[in-house]
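Today's session is about reading a structure prediction critically. Students often jump straight to the picture, but the first step is always the sequence itself: look for stretches that repeat, for charged clusters, for runs of hydrophobic residues. Only then move on to the predicted structure, which in these notes is written as discrete structure tokens rather than atom positions. Here is the chain we will use throughout the hour.
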Amino acid sequence: MPKLAAFPKAWLEELCVDGSMSLRQWIETSATIDADGLELYSGMLDLQDASRWPDYRGMVEDQGRTIPMLCCSPDFTHHDKAFRQQQIDLEKSWIDMAASLGARYCRVLSGQRRPEVSREDGINYCVECIEACLPHAAGAGVTLNIENHYKDGIGWRYPEFAQHMDVFCDLIDRIVSPHFGVNYDPSNTILAGEDPLELLGRIKHRVVTMHASDRYLAEGTLEDLRREELDSVGYAQRLHHGEIGRGANDYDAIFRELAGVGFDGWISLEDGVDGIDQMHRSAAYLRGKMAQYWAS
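Below is the predicted structure for this chain, in token form.
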């Protein structure tokens, strides 16, 4: 049976930018959510002090939960080799953070889809950088999991280089390691204008973790989003997270497919835009579906 984690997607501004919510406050607030673990993000302000990592791990473990995954956003798609090395060093430091927090998984990304970087160069840069991080991850007992991502909401101008499934699949096919897998996010596939189930069919044997969310456009179309996403840092304003189970994702089909290949990893719920009660409802929905498809 997979385990359920909660990720504070709706509170990243407060936790990572203006500091109006402390990590301690989030951990205490999340205690009411029916989740086995808490996924954290490397950009949280309170995590910048390495001496406090054992304290936050202890706070979560005192609740009888764990920190299964650290969500990180390295940017490997840059022509400048020195820039890429800086990102490799950052990812290695986040691997250390993940290990200290007790996390088994540390997310990687490809990087931004810069207009001047070709498909071939971008894939080569990503493979080179991720492979440079793998020995460090193995030594720390951590698995790197790359997400079919949309765009980092803090600081990125361009969407994800490997946003579309053809690039994403070509990239992961070139990396073979027991310390590397996929963090599957069906909502991000919809934002790419593609079919989440088609992607899952191609990568299901590589999936080690999952982000469960239901994204929606508050207004306009995907074409409007495409025009906006190149002109702003972070997420376009029309893009929202919604209550899980009430959006476009077919969780019955998704969970049936994952259960069929023996997936038993962590599923992290991402929502809360409309408050903590929304996370309670999303957790209850996911628990019900998990019990249905992993009944045995």
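Discussion point for the tutorial: The first helix runs from residue 12 to 16.
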